[in-house]
């Protein structure tokens, strides 16, 4: 694949914590669309969670690094963590577009179907779709039929991707840890160890 037609996946999220469902989605997209790499972009200041407690950006970044280190085509970017202010997808795409290493590549933005259903509330959703292929990954408890709820001009530009479903969510993981329950086999071992070492999600 030449530099001009290289395909790069972008997987944004709070990753609080990152789990095996995120990794599976990225890996399935990598195979389905012939991506040369998938960049995980932990959110710096998620604008949709201003009223929620969010783990520090550095801790979420480190968990994402630990989770992806064993895969040669997974990378992690600090572009949102290092940017001041709220993290918006459109700003991230604009920043990545200015980087010489991504000149001329085709971006595939990968996110869960649950997030896609809320895309009308995102900042500049139509411009986002002008800048990348937009991939909606199936999520446990959701069906792609629900994309019919979206405006047709947005729905027609979204690529659905069915993957093996894992009934795992970051919200559930935080609750399990808070209640002293195991998260083994739900997150990579290195992430589990980091959470334990830092005593994350206990309170």
From TrEMBL:
Listed InterPro entries: Cyt_trans-like, NadD/NMNAT, Rossmann-like_a/b/a_fold
A GO molecular-function descriptor: ATP binding
Q: Does the keyword Phosphoprotein apply?
A: no
UniProt-listed Enzyme Commission number(s) = 2.7.7.18
Biological process (GO) annotations?
A: NAD+ biosynthetic process
Q: Pathway listed for it?
A: Cofactor biosynthesis; NAD(+) biosynthesis; deamido-NAD(+) from nicotinate D-ribonucleotide: step 1/1
Q: Report the Pfam families cross-referenced here.
A: CTP_transf_like
Q: Would you say which domain of life the source belongs to? A: Bacteria
Catalytic activity entry: nicotinate beta-D-ribonucleotide + ATP + H(+) = deamido-NAD(+) + diphosphate
| Keywords carried by this UniProt record | ATP-binding, NAD, Nucleotide-binding, Nucleotidyltransferase, Pyridine nucleotide biosynthesis, Transferase
Q: Report the PANTHER family cross-referenced here.
A: NICOTINATE-NUCLEOTIDE ADENYLYLTRANSFERASE-RELATED, PHOSPHOPANTETHEINE ADENYLYLTRANSFERASE
Which HAMAP family would you find in this protein's record?
NaMN_adenylyltr (MF_00244)
* Family to which the UniProt record says this protein belongs: Belongs to the NadD family.
Please give the function described in this protein's UniProt entry.
Catalyzes the reversible adenylation of nicotinate mononucleotide (NaMN) to nicotinic acid adenine dinucleotide (NaAD).
**NCBIfam families in the record:** cyt_tran_rel (TIGR00125), nicotinate (nicotinamide) nucleotide adenylyltransferase (TIGR00482), PRK00071.1-3 (NF000840)
Name-wise, this protein is Probable nicotinate-nucleotide adenylyltransferase
Organism, by scientific name, is Cloacibacillus porcorum
Source gene? Answer: nadD
